[in-house]
Amino acid sequence: MKKLALLSAYDKTGIVEFAKKLEARNFQVISTGGTLKKLLDNGVKAIAVEDITNFQEMLDGRVKTLHPRIHAGILAKRDNPVHMKQLSAENIQPIDLVCVNLYPFKATIEKPGVTDDEAIENIDIGGPSMLRAAAKNSQDVIVLTDVNDYDDYIERYDDNKLDSKYHRHLAAKAFRQTAAYDALIAKYLTNEEFPDKLTLTYEKVENMRYGENSHQQAAYYKQAISEKYSLANAKQLHGKALSYNNIRDADAALRVIAEFPNQPTVVALKHMNPCGIGTANNLLDAWQEAFDADPISIFGGIIVLNREVDLATAQKMHSIFLEIVIAPSFTDEAYDVLAKKKNIRLITLSFGSIDQNGHDEVSVLGGMLVQNRDLLHEEPANFKVVSKVNPTADQLKALAFGQNVVKHVKSNAIVVTTDTKTLGVGAGQMNRIDSTKIAIDKAQPKAGYDKAILASDAFFPMDDCVEFAAKHGIKAIVEPGGSIKDQASIDKANELGIALVFSGKRHFKH
Ligand SMILES: NC(=O)c1ncn([C@@H]2O[C@H](COP(=O)(O)O)[C@@H](O)[C@H]2O)c1NC=O
Q1: 20 to 30 A Cα–Cα from 493, which one of 113, 348, 446, 468?
Q2: Which residues form the MGS-like domain (predicted)?
């Protein structure tokens, strides 16, 4: 007797060829409405699901394969005599292969202007039920849900390589498929921020050569429905594939530059911290500022620019070694100059704002922390002057610039900036005074230090940072405030005659 294969495919790519190959291997194909029509039109001698169920498809296709004669055929354990006796008592034939791909729920909800009705109708019920049934009974049944697996199955069939490992692999793939499908539906229905069961859906972009270090394995995944402003939507024009560390750094740089959409801006970043940020009226000047901020650290850095890269800027960048350059576009001449280096990665990306509804996840041993993003953009209007000396208008602008930079620097974070560029970045020290010393030490020799301000991502636990900064020529400081020793810092600012401003908001980045 012929074996039964049930084919029910929304995406009908390759389905006719596959069905013909099954027929040639002594399968009788059973199929649902649209799939059946396609198969019959193309010469496959398929039979309708209704011929098995003796029950007409109903409710606009909501019920087609949801029938005991189908599910018993899939679920019966072939080595269980009771199951097999029950099947034959009902005259039900076992179904040995289930090939299903689902209604396009994701593509439907991504369509602009999609209605709720359309979305709901694109929730597949019968398909996942068959996939799950076949996957549960994978020791006896082959379950295929990916168009790309058809040929592999046929090859294995011919080579007699349909071992239990392969059956299990397909079963796991089917369960992952239905789990991911359901997760998207649940998110669509409520988009709860912190649901009791966190079911995130990510799709593999690629396996990576290695992870953070060469002895670590890694892969890159993107959100099933990825945020618009994201590296996942970037286009690589030149250079070898991004590494694990490249992706993290590039992502960090994209977050920084999103603070400065209104002016040509260049962010240079190394090891997750900005080493130079410049904003100016044109990209070339912005590049020069970012470069001058730290001409040593920028070597091998990640550069993000928020305007089209022109020839002059490209020539400057070309003169040093850079890992990655990301911009909205490159002029042809700029591209030609930069692409002379084989290894530099050139990437284009449409700039935009960071998704306000997005979340950041970080794994901990045995768990994960989820939070919404620190998208608080600092403005002078948020600040409260707590010293006797008032900051000048330029200093206020610089204090806001500094706060918007320091929030992207690893804590304890201190930056010294003007109102357009960073001069010194003190990142990731275990105490605040060390970060202060590093930032000032880097900034002091630079042009513009006479106008520099200092910004801190969190409050000063004592007055030592204010004292150190003031004694090294800093005239205005911004910090969130909130320490029980705030008054000591205020007194020190007053004693040394500088401006101290509280922003009221901490910007830790661990
Ligand atoms: N309702 C059912 O019993 C049912 N059985 C299979 N489907 C889906 O119907 C689609 C194929 O339909 P058609 O062959 O009519 O084009 C597949 O995506 C399959 O997953 C169903 N549709 C939705 O639930």
Answers
A1: 446
A2: 1-145
Q: What is the end-to-end Cα distance of the chain in Å, rounded? A: 65
Report the Cα 290 to chain-centroid distance in Å.
27
CATH code of the domain in which 247 resides: 3.40.140.20
- Length of the chain (residues): 510
- List, for residues 196-244, the tens digit of each pLDDT value: 999 999 999 999 999 999 999 999 999 999 899 999 999 999 999 999 9
Predicted TM-score (pTM) of the model is 0.93
Which residue, 194, 190, 185, 177, is CA-closest to 360?
194
**CA atoms of 437 and 414, how far apart (whole Å):** 9
Taking each helix axis from N to C end, the angle separating 464-471 and 432-443, rounded to the nearest 10 degrees, works out to 10
Which of these is catalytic: 3, 12, 83, 136?
136
In terms of domains, do 401 and 332 share one?
A: no
CATH number at residue 181: 3.40.50.1380
Tell me the best of 6, 7, 10, 18 to mutate to test the pocket of ligand 1, counting ligand atoms within 8 Å of each CB and taking the most.
Answer: 10
**Residues ≥6 apart with Cβ < 8 Å to 335:** 237, 238, 309, 314, 346
Residues 6+ apart with CB under 8 A from 43: 20
Q: d(Cα 312, Cα 314) in Å, to the nearest integer?
A: 5
Give me the catalytic one of 12, 271, 316, 451: 271
Q: Quick check: CB of 135 below 6 Å from ligand 1?
A: no
Report whether the peptide linkage leading into residue 412 is cis, meaning its omega lies within 30 degrees of zero.
yes
Query: Where do we find the tokens 């034959």?
Result: 88
SS3 406: helix
